[in-house]
Amino acid sequence: LRKLDLLTAEEAGRVQEASSLPEQVRAVVDVLAGKGSYASQSLQTFIETTNSQLYLHITVYEPMVQKHLENLQNYYGNGLETGPLQRLTNLLLVEGLTDIQQKEHDILQIEATKGLRNVSKSIPLEKLFLPLSKVSIPPRISVTIGVAGIGKSTLVKLFVYTWAKGEINKDIIFVLPLTFRELNTYEKLSAERLISLAFPHITEPNCISAGAARTLLILDGLDEFKTPLDFSNTVVCTDPKKEIQVDNLITNIIRGNLLQEASVWVTSRPTAASQIPGGLVDRMTEIRGFGAAEMKDFLDQMFLDNRDLSGQVLHHIRANRSLHVMCTVPGFCWISGSSIGYYLKNSTDQSQETTAVPKTLSEIYSYYFKMALSSDWAEKPRETLRIEQAANNSKKIVGSLGRLAFYGLLKKKYVFYEQDMKAYGIDLSLLQSSSGGRLLLKEEMQSFTAYYFSHLTIQEFLAAIYYYTAAKRAIFDLFTESGMSWPKLGFLNHFKSAVQRSLQAEDRQLDIFVRFLSGLLSPQVNKLLSGWLLVKDEHNSFRSQAISILQGCLNTDYAISSRTVNTMHCLHEIQHTEIAKTVEEAMKNESLAGMLTPVNCSALAYLLQVSDVCMEETNLSNCLTYNVCKSLLSQLLFCHNLRLDNNQFKDNVMELLGSMLSVNDCQIQKLR
Questions:
Q1: Which CATH architecture has domain 86-287?
Q2: Where does the CARD domain start and stop, copy by copy (predicted)?
Q3: What digits encode the pLDDT tens for the residues 494-514?
Q4: Numbered ranges of CATH 3.40.50 in the chain
């Protein structure tokens, strides 16, 4: 162009400063736009005869890129507030999944780790797909993990919108955001047809499949995919035009058999992310939860018109250690903040004498459901309904959604489509016109409509209510959806069955469901939901036997696992706290010596997570034997300041402690 006298030296310099070919093309076009028809004609002749790639960029790719940017800006710019999203602009850089992340339910992960990861490195969002050093290469496969409600999809929206505005990663020509919810609606696809269906304005998908334009493919929400990914039996496919099963398509893309030149970014809950072999992942990041200041800001945003209420809610959250840890997750903080705010707004001095601030999970969700199913909903005020009418509507909605929630949970299904709604007899018109729409959210896309519960725990609470109600009259095992099983009569038999199933489940996905089921038998929850979803005082018929069933699960030698700790949580939900209180009192008085039976050891393992006594220092001086120490190892890992003096430990115990300190999950910082 300089030889043709179409650019001055200064203009050529400006073009060369652009970081990529498309950026250089735009710079050239901008410069020549003011030089008349001769300049543009000369440019076209020059490009057509000397540089076919440049010609393609100007005539084909550039218009597609512009259309793509406009579409993404319009779609992702709606309702994205950048203020509360500062937390998402810096991700934790992790070396892989820890043992607890691969095996445990999201909530158990947060409780065990106190919502903190032992990670010192972080990476800014704008450098997520760049090399970490001058001698490394950009990652091809990146995985970002985070528990339910932490903000994975919000992170994707923030990235896509920021990129589409031209603020980050200008070297990437196409960012293609897809969700596994969307992929669930297809049976077979080719790589090119996937791009054409999801982005109709990309008329030349072969420019992406052939690697002519740098592309980032985003696959959001692996945990919502209907088919587990099987990398060991992947049928290899290298033809971007060949249609194959969608799960095979995804594994071939991740393996690099298809779209080899594209970068791929997968987001997922931790347990589902373990489906991708570690050797295929070039970079793993994790979304961190709220810090103290962010939690305060979040609650202030929730109660913008009432800062006093925001302060009271925060005070109650901070006063409850386990609740405070859970509220580091924005989705859970929203539910807890809403419930406590609803309680404080609607309780008088007189009613506060009979009902306490919600503290257990079941109490928090009972208030949340009562608020969501009544006319007192913060976002959509409605005419006040008579309490009887509201209660009847609630029973219909919860009845229809509860079965969907329960069997969805058993099948690890968290996203539902119209065929699912029909299969479970859910009247969509009733759902849309009622308060049930506050529990089950709707996402409409061009080719499908998806429904999903506003948080995983909402699905689990609904599932527990369905099971509780159905168990009182069921004559067959409710875990067998077809109804074909040995007869099982009586609520307590069904309760015992649910507890046993949760203890046997390898994936731990029933743990919180069983906590909620136990909580529905507590006097406080019955008081809250009687007349709405429960019958007044009916818990009295089952509560003491249910407590015995749960306590029976603790009488197992000195083998303490997260299952045992979850059983203690169940006893807390049912409001049977005697064992825990006895052990906690002994901890305060430093008189644990001689009283650590298997049951008391279970209580101690639970207290290491939730008790304020262990907050500053976990003092287990002069009370541990080899068996007790061995049984508590998995819980001691997460004590930051651990005191073990005067225990007369021998070499075998020291070997145990040595192995504990070398585990990836270990968060011990100070040991005496």
A1: 3-Layer(aba) Sandwich (3.40)
A2: 1-62
A3: 999 999 999 999 888 999 999
A4: 86-287
